[in-house]
């Protein structure tokens, strides 16, 4: 192999039923299944070039050279599949409005999985790509597909992958991201989730109830039942954050402004508007609602947040190859 190059685009996803804990840290096997919505607004473009003249991997993110500590072990998995693939140069750009501090590892590793495997001459199926992306970041497993996606936890590397539930979402659902903090997380998701697995007395109850939430949420997607999906998502997110409060030592991702956004959504709901929130390993609040009612919700959020802090996103597509 001399030089081989490929570029891919992947969109981020937000979990409605969360993954929060691994049963195998090396293979990245989750404790439970999860369900997400891939979003159109936030994506990563990545180009990978394997070249026999390179003597090490090099990684540029938004034109800045970055350490390859997370990238090289991931590329090693691709090199195991094609030992002729040598070192690589990787160029990534994150298209997240104003560096919004939203999860970018999902789109990053999904784009890297497709670009790197294609540049290495491998023609992986979407299922194989999902398994590969999983090794970079759990949530990346789901960003291979568009729309609503389930990650089936599996019991080994072979059967832990995502499947599409509703790829071409043709019903009225959107997400509003309320950007509260653009900083790095205080506690990484890796550290946070392992702490709850090992120290929260509530962890077994989380697994049982999340498995029930997952079946009910998949049914709600199939029935286009926004209200039920929203109720399940909000309650599941709060249970995830309750695990964090019940860990030793306890921790929380909430900021005062997160609670302000949550209260606005709860008040709107008491006035009859169908809207629900979810939060991941950070303070930003994502609101699940319909396109029909989003103008009212944006107006209410605007009493506490600037227009730049409120970003509207719709269901987005799965990973695809793009022009280099
Ligand atoms: O993708 P990771 O390993 O950083 O974990 C992300 C975990 C959550 O975003 C909090 C939940 C999820 O299912 O995406």
UniProtKB/TrEMBL annotation:
Q: What class of enzyme is it?
A: lyase
Question: What SUPFAM superfamilies is this protein classified in?
Answer: GHMP Kinase, C-terminal domain, Ribosomal protein S5 domain 2-like
**Which InterPro entries does the record match to this protein?**
GHMP_kinase_C_sf (IPR036554), Mev_decarb (IPR005935), Mev_diP_decarb (IPR029765), MVD-like_N (IPR053859), Mvd1_C (IPR041431), Ribosomal_Su5_D2-typ_SF (IPR020568), Ribsml_uS5_D2-typ_fold_subgr (IPR014721)
Keyword Cell inner membrane among record annotations: no
- GO cellular component annotations, sorted alphabetically? cytosol
Diphosphomevalonate decarboxylase-like N-terminal domain: residues covered: 10-162
Keyword presence, Lipid metabolism: yes
Write out the GO biological process terms: isopentenyl diphosphate biosynthetic process, mevalonate pathway
Q: Keywords in UniProt for this one?
A: ATP-binding, Lipid biosynthesis, Lipid metabolism, Lyase, Nucleotide-binding
This entry's Enzyme Commission designation comes to 4.1.1.33
Molecular function (GO) terms for this protein are: ATP binding; diphosphomevalonate decarboxylase activity
The UniProt record lists the Mvd1 C-terminal domain at: 176-313
Entry similarity comment: Belongs to the diphosphomevalonate decarboxylase family.
Q: What is this protein called?
A: diphosphomevalonate decarboxylase
């Amino acid at each position: 192999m001399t030089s081989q190059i490929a570029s891919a685009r992947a969109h981020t996803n937000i979990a409605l039923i969360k993954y929060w804990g691994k049963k195998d840290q090396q293979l990245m096997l989750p404790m439970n299944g999860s369900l997400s919505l891939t979003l159109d607004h936030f994506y990563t473009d990545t180009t990978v070039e394997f070249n026999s003249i390179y003597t090490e991997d090099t990684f540029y993110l938004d034109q800045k050279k970055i350490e390859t500590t997370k990238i090289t072990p991931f590329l090693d998995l691709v090199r195991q599949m094609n030992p002729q693939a040598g070192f690589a140069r990787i160029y990534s750009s994150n298209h997240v409005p104003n560096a919004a501090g939203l999860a970018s590892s999902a789109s990053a590793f999904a784009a890297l999985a497709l670009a790197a495997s294609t540049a290495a001459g491998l023609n992986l199926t979407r299922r194989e790509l999902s398994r590969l992306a999983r090794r970079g970041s759990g949530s990346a497993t789901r960003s291979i597909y568009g729309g609503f996606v389930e990650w089936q936890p599996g019991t080994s590397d072979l059967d832990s992958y995502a499947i599409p539930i509703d790829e071409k979402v043709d019903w009225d659902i959107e997400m509003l991201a309320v950007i509260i903090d653009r900083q790095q997380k205080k506690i990484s998701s890796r550290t946070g989730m392992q702490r709850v697995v090992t120290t929260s007395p509530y962890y077994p109850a989380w697994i049982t109830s999340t498995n029930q939430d997952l079946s009910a949420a998949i049914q709600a997607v199939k029935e286009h039942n926004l209200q039920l999906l929203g109720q399940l998502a909000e309650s599941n997110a709060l249970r995830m954050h309750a695990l964090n409060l019940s860990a030793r030592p306890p921790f929380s991702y909430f900021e005062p402004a997160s609670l302000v956004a949550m209260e606005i959504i709860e008040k709107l709901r008491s006035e009859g508007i169908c809207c629900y929130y979810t939060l991941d390993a950070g303070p930003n609040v994502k609101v699940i609602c319909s396109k029909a009612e989003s103008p009212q919700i944006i107006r209410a959020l605007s009493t506490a947040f600037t227009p730049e802090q409120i970003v509207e996103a719709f269901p987005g597509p799965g990973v695809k190859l793009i022009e280099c």
